[in-house]
Amino acid sequence: MMRFISEKTAQNILIVIFSASLLFHGLVLAGILPNDIVWGGRTDLGNWQQFELVSIGVNLLLLLTVLWRKGSLPLPPKPRLLRVLFWGMTLLFALNTVGNLLAVTKLEMWLFTPLTFISTLLCLRLARS
Question: Who contacts 53 (Cβ-Cβ below 8 Å, separation ≥6)?
Answer without folding.
Answer: 29
